Amino acid sequence: MHQFAIHPMFGTEGWEIAGYNIAFTNSTLWMILAALGLLIFVFGGLKRELVPGRWQMAVEYMTGFIDSMLAANIGPAGKKYVPYIFSLFMFILFANVLGLLPIGIIGLHPFTFTSHFSATGVLAIMSFAIVLIVGFWKHKLHFFSLFVPHGTPLAMIPIIFPIELVSFLVRPFSLALRLFVAMMAGHVLLKVLSSFVISGINAGAGFAALVSIPSFILMIGISALEILVAAIQAYVFALLTSLYLNDAENLH
Amino acid sequence: MDPQAAKLIGAGLAAIGAGMAAIGVGNVFGSFLESALRNPGAADGQQGRLFIGFAAAELLGLLSFVVAMILIFVA
Q1: Which domains, ranges and CATH numbers included, belong to chain B?
Q2: What is the pLDDT of residues A153-164, one digit of tens each?
C-alpha cells in the first residue's frame, strides 16, 4: 500500500556507505518531525516560572505522569529512568499522532514510521539492551535468578527455567510487534473503509447511500478510536519497558 | 486443495483469533469497571495492571493478524 511505502526524498537515491543505501527517506523525515515536535513541546515548557502557564503545566503533567508511573512500578530506583521513558513515550506518541494528521487534504502524505517493524524493533532493542545492561551491571551473574522465581520447588526448576527464559527472550519481539501491528492494522482499516466510500460513490447513488455513508460514519468513529490507540500503544510501550526495568532493578 | 485457496482459508481462520482477543480485551476492561465501581478508591492504583492485562490480551489478537498477513502476502 502506498501509505506504507518508503521512498528516498530530495534526490538522495544514490547515497551509499559500504554498499548500503542511506538515502534520506520519508520515514527519516517523519522521525525528524516527531523529534522536532517533541523538542518544541519540551522547550516551550522550560521557562521555569513560579506560577506555571498552560504550556509549562502540560509539560510538567507529562513528566509527572511518567515519574509517578516509574515510582509505582520500580520504586525509588526508577527515578533515573525518567528521561529515557519520557523520551520514548513522547517520541512514540508524537509519531503515532503525526501519522494520523489529515494533511492528505492539502496534498501531503503523512507517514507513520511506527507502522514499520524496523523502526519499532530498534526502540524495543534499545529498551531490552538497557534491561540487560542494568541487570548484569547491578546483579552480575545473580541476574540469572530472574529465571527461577522465589520459592520454586527444586523439582520444578527444569520446567520453570526454560519457560521463564523464553518469556524473557521474546520480550523485545512482543514489544516491537505490538506497536507495529497496532499502528499498521489501524491504518489498513481506515484505508479499507475509505476504499468502500470511494467505490460506493463510483457505483451510483444507490450504492453511495447504502455503502458509502455508513462506511464514512464508521470511518469517523474509527479515526477517533485510532487517536485513542495511538496514545494507548505509546503508554503500553512505556509501561512494559518500565516493568522490564523493574525486573532488572529489583529481580523478582 | 489449491495452495492459494488454502492460504486464504488459513488467513480467514486466523481472524477467529482476532475475535477471541476482542473477547479477552472486553473481559479485561469489563472486569476492571465492575470492580472499580464496587471500590472506586482502589481503582486509580490499579490502572497500570489494567493496561498490562490489556496489552497481554491484545498481543495475541495482533499475532493472529500477523499470521493472516503473512499467509496472504508472504507465504
Answers
A1: 3-74 (1.20.20.10)
A2: 888 888 888 888
* Residue A31 host element (H or E): helix A26-44
Count of domains observed in chain A: 1
Confidence of residue A252 (pLDDT cuts 50, 70, 90): low
Listed in sequence order, the DSSP H helices in chain B are 3-38, 40-43, 47-69
| Distance, CA of A179 to CA of A126 (rounded, Å) | 15
pTM listed for this prediction: 0.85
Percent of chain A with pLDDT over 90: 16
Chain A interface includes B54 (CB < 8 A): yes
What's the gap in Å between the CA of B50 and the closest CA on chain A?
Answer: 10
Dist. CA A238–CA A97, nearest whole Å = 16
What ipTM does the predicted assembly reach? 0.77
Record the cell numbers describing residue A205, joined without a space: 447513488
Interface of A with B (CB under 8 A): 69, 72-73, 174, 177-178, 181-182, 185, 232, 235-236, 239-240, 243
Query: A213-250 vs A117-139: helix axis angle to the nearest 10?
Result: 20
DSSP string over A137-177:
HHHGGGGGGGGS-TT--GGGHHHHHHHHHHHHHTHHHHHHH
- Structural domain range at position A162: 2-250
- Beta carbons of B17 and B63 less than 8 angstroms apart: yes
What are the pLDDT digits (tens) for A29-83?
Answer: 888 989 999 999 888 878 777 788 888 888 888 888 899 888 888 888 888 888 9
Residue B55 Cα distances to A150, A236, B11, angstroms = 25, 7, 23
